[in-house]
Fold each of these.
Amino acid sequence: MAKYFDVHPANPQPRTIGTVVDSLRSGALVAYPTDSCYALGCQLGNRDAIDRIRSIRNLDDRHHFTLVCHDFAQLAQFVRVDNDVFRAVKAATPGSYTFILPATKEVPRQLLHPKKKTVGVRIPDHVVTQALVSELGEPLLSSTLLLPDEEEPLTQGWEIKERLDHEVDAVIDSGDCGTEPTTVIDFSGDEPEIVRRGAGDTSRFE
């Protein structure tokens, strides 16, 4: 049965954030809010939780997982960014964007796209997410909480608790965070490619 945490959206309680992070370090899979809908998150090297995310969402090995980072310095440890890409990503963060970039050796192999050796990264503009990642001290491995055969992600903490009570270990509820997932921009080729149009404005990449 999943633990349920009611977290203030503007002033997240440090003790509660610490409890959730302790759970993550102990192998937990957590449903948590972001600036563009809810997501599933776990520690980077947690193979069991990664398999559980794949099972919940019915994902194949071509799915791009996302590393949710606290800031640009942390992001740059896990992906290779040239000067042009640096400027474009820096200007759009924090915000509702996921960027697909070539991964560094810091990223576990099972998270990489099997052919492109890329991974998604993002810096969210959400107080609770930032508090989690800051306390964790490393990126949170993440995937949008979009269930198979459903068009929109789940948006309410109580509903997630009800639907996934035996599939996740904890649910963080800090209020409604919308239904629109991130805009996904692939920077792994010669030109930026808009993979998914979502909450982030795409005009700067077109």
Amino acid sequence: MYIPDLYKNEDKEAIRTFLKANAFGILINQTNGKLWATHIPLELEINKEGEEVLMGHISKENPQWTAFESDNQVLAVFTGPHSYISSSWYDHENVPTWNYSAVHIYGKIKIIEGDAVIDTLTKLVDKYEQNSKCPVRVAELSKKTMMQTRGIISFEIKIEEIQAQTKMSQNRDDKNYSNIISELEKTENPQSMAVAKEMAKNRK
């Protein structure tokens, strides 16, 4: 993606944190001669070789997986909170814009099988069940329920390139920057308020 230098995010730890917090991404590839996209959780993990990878799975009924072996190049897209920014919030005339964060990961995908499939499903469920009153455990599911794993294709994406952009009004002076935060908070829109929180954290 096009990233102006001002908005380029090269902080590896910040990118890791972003990916873990915004793991519901879009997996994109070429399938049957056209672009194909699936919205799924893509979890940043360490594989058995000690490499950072993305792990995920899709339904066998989804034709996207049929192209994984013939063309293993994929793109994973992740976005965080975003919000419209009105130029009426500035102390000067200008154009409206949009604040957002995004990470694009380019890599090679390969299908995984066997125990590794259950391992990745266990990690996924444990992550999202940790705040449940009665957390589900993969190890406690019946054989009948676990038979459903036969209907998925699990995969690992070897990361080759990361492009990260954080566009949060970095080009504004302190006065206008503070006013943008204040106006975003007034909207009471969860996305806008999340952007305000991110901006406040970035410039104290």
Amino acid sequence: MAHHKYVVAFRIGFQSSLEYRFNFFLSLFSAVFPIVVHYYIWTAVYASSGESGLFGYSYQEMIMYTIIAAVVSKLVITNMEHAIAEDIKSGGLNKYMVKPIAYFGFRICSFIGQRLIYVAISLLVILALTFALNSFYKQHTGLERLLAFFLSLCLSVILSFLISYALCAFAFWLSEISYFFVVTSLLVNIMSGGMFPLEIFGEGLQQLFRYLPFHYMIYFPVNVLNGKIADGLIWQGIAGQGIWIGLMLIVCHLAWKRGMKRYLGLGG
């Protein structure tokens, strides 16, 4: 029954998502405003440029990217950094050190439980948006791309968790971590393509971003669905997501192992 405690952690996360589901719907609704702003901005940019394509995107592809990326970004954001930092600062880790459950195992099982219903709802929203955009712009997204998108989206959620968990280790060294999380979340959102397609930053920065894991969180799954990534490169990208998940597991282990040497356990 060693696995039972992690099932309980999953159930706690799932129940939490049911209790606070209004927050998720509110979060999705909050994505509407930036979508509207980006829609009018890109409409004006394409109209004034007189070009049928900018940064390698047609007008239809850019609008579709903007809308889908806004929904995906709301899904992959973990929003757990402050809770973990509080456990580190207040001594909340103590109870996991004396009980037969690993803190990482508890957090990831709870996170998966929290995200399960969100993934299901977000997929329904994304599928509805894709169908509407395809009908409006007379495009076609095949079933194979939809399945590849679903797989890449699940991997991006896991990758996002691992990146956030690794960043939380800085709480062992920084006395005030809130502003650090604000800055890093903004940078991660930019480098992951949550605000604009990475092509907008130019060839140099785009190549740099491709050597980092962040573009696999939003940019890659959205462009799988958008049709911008060639069929032959989809599974190569999914393999890249898997490799980065493995690497981030190692980074998380090393960062937290070193951070725990500084942990005082005060207050818990």
Amino acid sequence: MSTYRVCFWIFVALAALEVVHGIPVFLPWAFLLVAVTSQYLSTRAPRRHTPPPAVEVAAPVTGRWLALNSPADKVPSHGTYQYGQSHAIDIAAEPADGSRPAFGWWPLSRPARAFPAFGAPLLAVADGTVVSARDTQRDHRSRNSWPALPYLLFEGLFRDLVSARRVIGNQLVLDLGNGTYALYAHLRKGSLRVRAGDRVTAGQTVAECGNTGNSSEPHVHFQLMDHPDPAQAHGIPFTWTGVGVPANLETFTAPDPAPAVPGKRRLP
């Protein structure tokens, strides 16, 4: 458990004791200060860590998609280096007919199946071995409206206090070799086609896009990292064969699966 979570729950316990038994009031607030400081430090670049060159892999999807929270625009792409997501990207299916529901005021939320990304096949980006695979968390309704945004932020904070798994949702981690691991997050419940220890080949369907964990709508969260456990990992830059690294709000079409050379590195 991270320093942030430990200190926060100690704060909660001491705050309750302060009310019931009158312990010194500074004690709980001292732990809260440590918790906030620890969480702030997680947004900063790790000391003495230089990201390696980008690793070229195939795209994890095919078809027309929209990029969100892209490392092409900023690093860390998600505002934090925590969970190895400094160079992560979010993508949502964006059909040319405009059938993806827009962010707005109403309705407050929609069922996951209302989004074209939900159930989309996810592909192995290179040959590799399955390190971990979990798909037992339920798919929840969307939070893609202005009134639902505060709820999403509060929910994300609570999920983070519980565990990294509740943030990432259903997940798949592939060992691509040469110290490179691929993480797929927010997978659809029950959609995994592989399990730990399985060998996969580039382009193989491994799971489906879902809406689990800290997710506003069904989308693919993809990242490369240098450790199989996101809680201990640093992010690794990536580039997708035939696509590159799409920028925020850039629509792109991912080609049909093509074999990628695991461990091949080049600058995008």
